[in-house]
Amino acid sequence: MGWSHLRAFALLTGFLGAMPAFAEVKPEVTALNQAPHSALYVGNSFFYYNNSLHAHVREFVLRAETKNNFRSVSATISASGLNWHDVAAYFRPDAVGSYSFDAQNRVIFTPKGQKPFDVTILMDCSQCPVHPELKTLFTEYAEKHAATVRANGAEPVLFMSWAYQNVPEMTGELAD
User: Fold this and answer.
1) Which one of 1.20.140.10, 3.40.50.450, 3.40.50.10860, 3.40.50.1110 gives the CATH number of domain 37-175?
2) pTM to 2 decimals?
3) In this structure, how many other beta carbons lie within 10 angstroms of the beta carbon of residue 46?
4) Which residue, among 38, 148, 49, has the nearest Cα to 97 in the 3D structure?
5) pLDDT tens for residues 8-43?
């Protein structure tokens, strides 16, 4: 058996051995109540870099068979935790998301009285949910911001980052 076959076998064995751990982690909520037409991304550089998560989602929406006038806004602070964000301020009337631009660069104002976002995706710093000194802040602000989002008529979605490459045990901790 050559090195490439041995390496493939080792990877497959490791993956199959880890499958029970993946199977144990089941989120309580697996779908939104309805398909959103607008989203607010609240987080940090994980949402912003590499052409931003909201831009990639928009590309999926634009290429979908069913056309949807999906709009999104990203409120990101580099290296931030959820406690750095004033989520209530993002829902003030005539503020974030109160207008956008169409393909011809014309201003499109959000109709008065329309809720600014259908869904708000919240992300804490990558290690905050499992860090001994920060995980209580994560819990506190995830709950606080989720309540704020719901009070403004949107659905909160918690986005958990991936484990660090050199700390694979973070996967289980983040999933829990």
Assistant:
1) 3.40.50.1110
2) 0.77
3) 19
4) 38
5) 444 434 444 444 444 455 667 777 778 888 999 998
